[in-house]
Amino acid sequence: MKKFFLPLFILSVAAMSSAIIGCSDKEAEAEIGRLTQENASMQHSIDSLQHTLDSLNAYGDSVKASLRKLDMGK
């Protein structure tokens, strides 16, 4: 998951830098808006994938625990 955070960080810094400088160019402002929305969408996807990964890890741990219990009965 770390490899997703660097591009998002760079995108965020670029958007904030442009906003701080104060763009008067409407095309640049539109691009900043588009990139901000894309950033939010990517962050939502990352959060969703992290939730899925956490759920699968918990399920895997549960299966491992069940298998350990079966081995102890032998």
Describe what you observe in this structure.
The protein is mostly helical. 91% of the residues lie in helices and 0% in strands. The longest helix is centred in the middle third of the chain and has 47 residues, at 26-72. The two termini are 40 Å apart.
Summarize the structure.
By secondary structure, the chain is mostly helical. Helices cover 91% and strands 0% of the residues.
Key features?
74 residues; mainly alpha; 91% helix; 0% strand
Distance between the termini: 40 Å
Compute the average pLDDT: 83
Please tally the β strands and state the result: 0
Helix content: over 70%
Q: Class by helix and strand content?
A: mainly alpha
Q: Which regions contain 5 or more consecutive residues with pLDDT less than 50? A: none
Q: Given the structure, what is the number of helices? A: 2
Radius of gyration: 21 Å
Per DSSP, what share of the residues sits in E-state strands of 2 or more residues?
A: under 5%
Write the layout of secondary structure elements.
Layout: H1 2-21, H2 26-72
Helix pairs in contact: 1-2
